[in-house]
Design goal:
To bacterial alkanal monooxygenase alpha and beta chains. The chain is α/β, with parallel strands linked by helices. The protein has a single domain, classed as TIM Barrel (Alpha-Beta Barrel). Helix 3 links the parallel strand 3 and strand 4. The mean pLDDT is 96.
Amino acid sequence: MKDPISISILELAIIAQDSNAPETFQKTKEIAQLADTLGYKRFWLAEHHNMAHVASSATVVLIGYIAGQTQNIRVGSGGIMLPNHSPLIVAEQFGTLETLYPNRIDLGLGRAPGTDQLTAEAIRKDFFEQAQRFPQNVTKLQDYFSTENATAKVRAFPAEGTNVPIWILGSSTESAALAAAYGLPYAFAGHFAPRQMIQAFEFYRENFQPSEFLDKPKTMACVNIVAADTNEEAEKLSTSLYQMFLNLIRNDRKGLQPPVDSLDDIMSEEERFHVNQMTACTFTGNKEQLITDLKKFIDYARVDELMATSPIFDHQAKLKSIHITKEVIDNINNI
């Protein structure tokens, strides 16, 4: 019998049009508390910089806030962009979080800057050199968490001996190779870069080396999910997501836009092509539609976990989408 699929949330803390950071933090807390109550497994936050409409730049601070406002859900990073940081500092920060919230903290690691090139250099002058050293820095981070590091001259307190699960995040087969070689769980960013997802999962499973952390492959796909009472309502709500990606390819930085009746007058044929490529892993519809579509995807991708991100403009509609999505996964697990 197949293991049940876990459902989690990636919250991008996007500031909606005519909103602000304080309101976004309040909404993020409410989303996390609802997910906690409903039995979602994880609530992850992502690191982005120099983006006026993304409120999660101080990712570790926000993780601590959300963990303190919830009871059972695992809270973590999707992810921390390791080349931006010293492995020692990351170990100290996540060791502190794990000490405060035992057995509830995840550390997802990425190698991209989470920003533009100029900002990456402002964060860390040697960013691009550190990006090349990503595998070595993952090892260094693991060393700081281990009890074997007790004899080292440089130690991370209170991280030493804490059991913080490390995930490798990625959007290519390169990240899959690292996760497989290190015997770590692997999460793929299907919500914005789905093209290589199936290939990356297959490579990861075929090349996985068991480790002290994991004895068999563990995969998670992050996808866009917009759920509503009707397919038509979900389709309209999803236009905010498509406008977000349209603004991304135009390099037009705006807050999350309200839904529109039609996208035809907003984007050109070429823009629609690029947006559709980036959003190919988007699931939209009512409960019945999503049960069909998500079950087909889960069976095809052979993932162990599913993480949903839902850029929905209206806060109450987003909370409802989170309710319906959990019902959908519960139904799939009972089929």
